Amino acid sequence: MRTGISITLSSADRKRLQTIVKDRNAAQKHVWRAGIVLLSADGVGTNEIMRQTGTSKTCVWRWQERFMEEGVDGLLRDKTRPSRVRPLGQDVAERIVALTQQDPPCEATHWTGAMMAKAIGVSVSSVQRIWRAHGLQPHRLRLFKLSNDPDFVAKLRDVVGLYVDPPAHAIVLSVDEKSQIQALDRTQPGLPMKKGRAGTLTHDYKRNGTTTLFAALNVLDGKVIGRNMQRHRHQEFIRFLNAIEAEVPAGKLVHVILDNYAAHKHPKVRQWLQRHERFTFHFTPTSCSWLNAVEGFFAKLTKRRLKRGVFRSIVDLQAAIHRFLEEHNEQSKPFTWTANPDKIIAAVRRGHQALDSIH
C-alpha cells in the first residue's frame, strides 16, 4: 500500500460496505469500489486488490483516497466532469429568443428548430433547450375570437345569471343547431384494435348526405330535446320550437338561450314568439358560442359518436344520433356553470387592450 494511505473501518462502515458487495441489485461500480476499500482495510496489497477487483492501479488509489476524504458516501457519488463543449453564452440565448418572436426571413410562417439552428450556428438541441427555458413554442398556435358586441357585459351577465340562478317555476333551455353533419361511409372496412396496434380507419370516405340536429339542453336536469332535419332555416327552427312547446310541461315559463344566427331573429320567428308568451329569448353576445351550454353536448356527440362513425345512409346517421340522445338522457346531470363572469369580462378587456397596443 502507498505511503500515507491508512484505511481503518468502523463496524458500521464495514457492515454498510459488505451490504453493498452482497446486494445483487447494487450498481457494479459501487460493488468494486466497496471491495477495494474492504480489501485495503484488511491489509491486502495493491496488486492483489487489482487482481481481485479487475481494476487498474490508479483506480485503486483514487477510491482509497476518496474513502479517506469522504467516507462511504464518497464511493457512491461520481464527481461531475466539465463538458467538452463550451456552454453557449447569454448573448446567444438572447438572440435566439429575439429572433423567435420575429418572422423568419424565408417564406415560412414560423421558426423551426432546424431553421433557427442554421441561422444562429448552434445545434437543434441547443435551440430546443433555450426555447423550453424561456417557455417558447413557435410550432403551436392558439385560436381566439374577441366579441365586439357593445352589450357584451349585459348579455354575459344575463346568460350566466340564468345558469347560476334560474328563475323559479321556469325552465332554462340552451338551444342551437349542429348543421352539415355528414353521413360518411369508409371506402374499406377498418381493423379492430388489438395489443400493440390501434384501430384503423381509412382516410378517404364516401358522402351519403347531411343532416342538421336541432338540440335544446335543459340546464336544470341536463336532458336534451333533439330533432333531425334536412335544413336549418327559420322554417325548421319554428318546427323545433313547436316540438319544445309540446314537450315542456304546461304552465312553465321557458327561457331560451340562443346565439345570433339569422334564423333565430327572423320576423316569422318573432311572430311565433309573440304568440307564445311564456317563451323568452336570451341572445348570447356575438362571437361567444362558448357561452351556449348546448355546445358542450355537441362536442361530446362529435367526439364519441360521429368522428369515428361509419354511416351508409342519412337514415343510419339519424338513427345513431337518436340512440345517442336516448343514452345521454338516461344518465344526464344538471349543467353547472363555474366560470366567474367578472374574470371573463376582465380577460376580454385585456385582450382588446393587447390588440389595440399591437395594431
Termini separation? 78 Å
CATH homologous superfamily of the largest domain? Answer: Ribonuclease H-like superfamily/Ribonuclease H
As a percent range, the share of helical residues equals 40-55%
From the coordinates shown, what is the CATH architecture of the largest domain? Answer: 2-Layer Sandwich
User: Which regions contain 5 or more consecutive residues with pLDDT less than 50?
Assistant: none
Order of secondary-structure elements: HHHHHHHHHEEEHEHEHHH
Structural class computed from helices and strand pairing: alpha/beta
Output the radius of gyration.
35 Å
Number of DSSP helical runs: 14
Strand order of the largest sheet: 3-2-1-4-5
What's the count of strands?
Answer: 5
CATH domain topology of the largest domain: Nucleotidyltransferase, domain 5
Q: On the 0-100 scale, what is the average pLDDT?
A: 92
Number of domains: 3
Which CATH top level class of the largest domain fits? Alpha Beta
What would the principal axes of the Cα set say about the shape? Answer: elongated
Question: What does the main sheet amount to?
Answer: 5 strands, mixed
Keywords: Plasmid
Organism: Methylocystis rosea
Domain Tc1-like transposase DDE: 173-317
Protein name: IS630 family transposase
